Amino acid sequence: MGGKLQSSHQALLNEGKEDETEIFGYRTHGFRRAVCIAGYVLSCGVLLLVFYWKPAWDVWANCVPCDLHEADVVLLRATDEFQRYTRKKVIWVDLSKLLDNNKLSNILRNDKECVISKAIMKPRLKVRYIQVQKIRYVWDVSAKQFHRIGSLEDSNTCYEIHRKFGEGLTKQEQDLRRVICGPNRIEVEIRPIWKLLFKEILNPFYVFQAFTALTFDTVKHPKATSRA
Questions:
Q1: If you average pLDDT over residues 187-197, what whole number do you get?
Q2: Residue 91: which pLDDT band, with cuts at 50, 70 and 90?
Q3: Angle between helices 55-62 and 46-53 (to 10 degrees)
Q4: What's the pTM value of the predicted model, to 2 decimals?
Q5: Helices (H), the chain
């Protein structure tokens, strides 16, 4: 049982590539979540700051391990020497308002083996995905793993690309791909100055410096501090 959970709980993104990453599935636990919220309040936000610095601790404290197909949160770990952790929320997309099962069959009749077709849960018409560094990875229902989406699959030959997409995409195909793959443009977020400053202040180095300076001032002037 443990081995089965381990294999379905853990997988690899971009296996064999330069950006290869380990992925672990977790599910938010109600009681653990409540305890962590109480900890945030009792610690005056210190615990929340620690979890901001250590996303893996945040996931381990709030969630329990589960299969990737049941996860609402995933933990990513780089396979390089630093093994940095990143927390990502699993996002659901509902396609029922965009199309029904009959329309879906017509739209994907020429490319039923594409990643988009394998990612749509039928008959609920829903898609699960995570976004890592502006790249979407959808959940392949049949293969039970996350696949990168937003580009043509490597398995397509030149002939197949011309046959499937030579006449262009219909309006429904465009809408479907736009919802699942995201808009076909590069968006550069311009963060406001206050957000950049706030994020810089939360850097552990500056927090440690502020704590050291405060401690040194307290030790150096104990009487003045006690009078205040």
A1: 73
A2: very high
A3: 120
A4: 0.76
A5: 2-9, 30-42, 46-53, 55-62, 101-107, 115-119, 158-165, 171-181, 193-201, 204-220, 222-227
